[in-house]
Specification:
The chain contains 8 helices and 11 strands. The N and C termini lie far apart (about 90 Å).
Length: about 230
């Protein structure tokens, strides 16, 4: 004798296989089954963005199905200021996985309320420094050229970026970067590869036990070290 209860798992498994094999017409039919109601939402890729902000923007209620069109949900999450890209995957039977790519901050800029985190375009990002640990260099203004350079340094020279406490423009043709060990001076328009020239010099001076006050990159193909 076959028990009726034993048919339910088999029927659900069959429905899932049909959905995977027939993506165009099966999902709308399965969306009506309570088995596929959204019960869990996972947020992945968020570093500074609070998952609660993503959930609030999704506005998914208990009647939603994992088979519903996710494009409107992606569009809602994409309106968050910190989100540069978002995709949503389904994890059957009842989970939506939200993959977010954040627009990362590159620096703090002084404001009336203290310090504001900004991205490489100078846009203020609503980052709650009391909730997450944010360690960024400080720049005096939303200097987009300098901010773009900092973003490049973060991507190519993370060890240098992590040591930066501030960066500023000294006049129109000079940039100054403050490291714990020394001040670095460079011409405006300096490239990341040129900034990388200080690394072997720092290592050599450290081996010699020299205390460096300033590293000057303003002279072509040279790194001038001024020691204390």
């Amino acid at each position: 004798m076959v028990r009726r209860a034993g048919w339910k798992p088999f029927a659900i498994a069959t429905a899932v296989l049909i959905a995977l094999a027939s993506p165009f017409w099966a999902p709308p039919l399965l969306a009506h089954l309570s088995f596929f109601r959204v019960r869990t939402i996972e947020v992945q890729g968020a570093r500074y963005l609070a998952p609660s902000a993503v959930l609030a923007r999704l506005h998914v209620d208990t009647t939603a199905s994992v088979w519903d069109d996710v494009r409107p949900l992606e569009q809602r999450v994409a309106t968050l200021p910190q989100v540069s890209a978002v995709t949503i995957d389904r994890k059957l039977p009842g989970t939506l996985v939200i993959h977010v790519t954040e627009d990362l901050p590159v620096a703090f800029v002084p404001s009336r309320g203290g310090l504001e985190a900004v991205d490489s375009a100078g846009r203020v990002l609503p980052i709650d420094a009391s909730r997450v640990d944010v360690d960024l260099p400080v720049v005096a203004t939303r200097d987009t050229a300098l901010l773009r350079l900092l973003a490049q340094v973060r991507g190519s020279l993370p060890s240098m970026y992590d040591r930066l406490s501030d960066a500023r423009r000294a006049g129109g043709d000079e940039l100054v970067f403050t490291l714990p060990e020394a001040v670095v001076r460079a011409q405006a328009g300096v490239t990341v590869s040129r900034l990388a020239d200080i690394i072997p010099v720092e290592r050599d001076l450290a081996r010699r036990g020299a205390h460096v006050a300033e590293l000057d990159l303003r002279f072509r193909d040279q790194v001038i070290a001024r020691v204390q």
